[in-house]
Every structure is written in structure tokens, then in C-alpha cells.
Amino acid sequence: MGILRGIPLRDDEGVRTGSPTLRVRLWPAVVFGFAGLLVSIAFFLPVLSQIHNPAPFLLFLGLPTMMGAAAGALLGPPLMSPSRPRSNSWAARRGAAIVTVALVLFAPVFVAAIKMTEPGWNGVLGLTLLVLWFSFIAAWWLLAVVGAVAGLLLYRWAVWENERLER
């Protein structure tokens, strides 16, 4: 069996090497956080390379990474535990859904952070809807593709690991 079936792996001396729940949540968090960072770098690095203030780096690189990691940790474990047969298309759709949730989580956190770093912004709800609307228009298609690839890779890795451990 192995880590993906709920039984922790053991090292050479037979000592447990970690919590299976932690690993099943950690890998999707890392992968989707990294995916959020890559998409943010692709969109904002040309602009951020000319800025010396650290606040925009937090807003445009840090927050998408954290929201991707949070959504991956919350919704990614089914990708890592192939207990029942699922398809590659299911994994891709799940990955796209995870990054969509990350985008929905990003908007209010971004607005709260921008309100703290830039005084004078009013209308938190309206600004949240504005950020959400324009981020869906500008970036959702790319996020969905990157999320689908990330979900598929995690699922295929979990299936491969499960088959390897069953031998």
C-alpha cells in the first residue's frame, strides 16, 4: 500500500516518515501555490521589475501564491488519493475548479490588502467585485489551463505512486 492509501511510508529502519494527511494536503498546496506564482509572474513581472516598493510584490505575487496554496490544500486532496477510479478529465476539471476558487478567494484578500497599503479606497464590496470581474476577464482562461495541467499532473503522479507501491 502506501502514503496515498492512508498508510504512512516507512524509512529503511521501519520508522514512520510523516503524516499521510499532511502529505496529501501539502503537495496540492505547493503545486497550486507555485502555479499561482507562475501565472502572476507572467502577468506582472514586467511592471514589478521597475518598482522598488515591496507592497506591490506582496499584492501581485504573494497573495496569488498564498490563495493558490490555500485552495490547493482545501480542495486538492482528492487528486492525491485515487481511492476509486477516476479519469484524467476529472483531474483536469478539478484543477481548473481549484484555481477558480483561488481566484474567488484572492479578490477580497487583495482588496483588504490594498485598503491597508493604499489609504483612500472606499467601497470594499464594489472594489472586490471589480477585481473579481476584471481578473476573470483577463486571467481566468490562463488560470484554468494552468490549474487543469496542475490537477492532471498531481493525479497522474498519485496514480503512478499508488501503482508503484502496490507492486
Protein model, in words:
The protein is an all-alpha fold. The chain has one domain. Helix content is 77%, strand content 0%. The chain is built from 5 helices and no strands. The chain has helices at 20-48, 54-75, 77-80, 88-117, 124-166.
Order of helices and strands: HHHHH
The major β-sheet equals:
none
Helix tally equals 5
Approximate helicity band: over 70%
Summarize the structure.
By secondary structure, the protein is an all-alpha fold. It contains five helices and no strands. Helix 1 packs antiparallel against helix 2 (54-75) and helix 1 (20-48) packs across helix 5.
Keywords:
single chain, 167 residues, mainly alpha
Helix and strand layout, with pairings?
Blueprint (H helix, E strand, L loop, with lengths): L19 H29 L5 H22 L1 H4 L7 H30 L6 H43 L1
Helix pairs in contact: 1-2, 1-5, 2-4, 4-5
